[in-house]
Amino acid sequence: MTGAVDWARVSDLFNRVEPLAPPERDVILRDEAEPVRDQVRALLEAYRREGGRFSGSALEALRGADGLALPDEPRPGSRIGAYEVVREIGRGGMGIVFEAFRADDDYRKRVAIKLVGAGARTSAVMQRFRRERRILAQLEHPNIAGLLDGGLTPDGAPWFALEFVEGVPIDEYVRDRQLPLAGRIALLRQVCSALRYAHQRLVVHRDLKPGNILVAPDGTAKLLDFGVAKLLGGDDSGGGDETEVGARTYTPAFAAPEQLLGEPLTTACDIHGLGLVMYVVLTDRHPWRSRGESAADVRRRILNEPPPPTGLGPDLDAILGVALAKEPARRYAAAGDVDE
């Protein structure tokens, strides 16, 4: 691969083409410079392998087979504020997450540090990142990963430190432990509590999915990643409900119909997301996505088909039917209503 890579362009293009079918992707990518086109395709393949979650292996694909490193990004042993970086633990379209320890003389505290990658520092991304930090500063709940610290790197990039959650996604947790129904419901009650708390503070998460809910070994669920969250009815200078050009503020397979249609969003979109998480956690399967289905097929089913029966009884089917209603007004008014 030759030529300099425009990493901001790679990030923007990835977010634009990932939801599309391969022929549509090819039409958009064919006029791009070869280094950018190749890196986008590598990232798409890594994203597919990771099942929609970025990790170290996805980062390696993004960097490319030639081992090209992104400029000005922290390495193990480097410092961010008072923290020493241990390793990279995640990467998405808006930020990179590192495991780190507080490294001053006071104490050593394990944290997760999030900052905007050097190749993604567009004005829209920086605005959304600052919005996430403002939102997290308002949230103190035992089932939400808490904000601990924040600042700027020497080159002016914002960062913040969160409590480190050593856990696994909620769907993996219940499946690997073959948790009984009562245990799964108890976990989901924690998620409902976190979401109810956020909504009471007019925060809409907008990207609820199993990968954004980690469960610690002691069984505590933690809601993560408010990177595309929005404040309702307040100062939210990060933009409106619309999807930014070249970006997407949801995960298609876990999106509400109004998100897929680009309509205004309220807390009802989170109720739909909660319903999807509940269905997956309770049944070990997605109601509208099966192996081999295209993104277009999943979108069509979300928009048009009711959730199939869970096999767990009419009471749970009725609860999920309301949470997953196509029209926002027909869903539960609050996360607490689902819990009850």
Note down, in words, how this protein is organized.
The chain has helices at residues 7-17, 22-29, 34-49, 56-63, 123-137, 170-176, 181-200, 257-260, 268-283, 295-304, 314-323, 335-339, and strands at residues 79-80, 83-91, 96-102, 110-115, 147-152, 158-163, 168-169, 203-204, 213-215, 221-223, 230-231. It is of the alpha+beta class and 340 residues long. It folds into three domains: 7-63, no CATH class; 79-163, Phosphorylase Kinase, domain 1, CATH 3.30.200.20; 168-339, Transferase(Phosphotransferase) domain 1 (Transferase(Phosphotransferase), domain 1, Orthogonal Bundle), CATH 1.10.510.10. α3 packs antiparallel against α4 (56-63) and α7 packs antiparallel against α9 (268-283). The chain is globular.
Give the gist of this structure.
The chain has 340 residues and is α+β, with helices and mostly antiparallel strands. It has three domains: 7-63, no CATH class; 79-163, Phosphorylase Kinase, domain 1; 168-339, Transferase(Phosphotransferase), domain 1 (Orthogonal Bundle), CATH 1.10.510.10. It contains twelve helices and eleven strands.
Q: CATH homologous superfamily of the largest domain?
A: Transferase(Phosphotransferase) domain 1
Helix content: 25-40%
The end-to-end span amounts to: 57 Å
- What is the CA-based Rg, rounded? 20 Å
Architecture of the largest domain, CATH level 2? Orthogonal Bundle
Query: Can you identify the CATH class of the largest domain?
Result: Mainly Alpha
Question: Tell me about the biggest sheet?
Answer: 6 strands, antiparallel
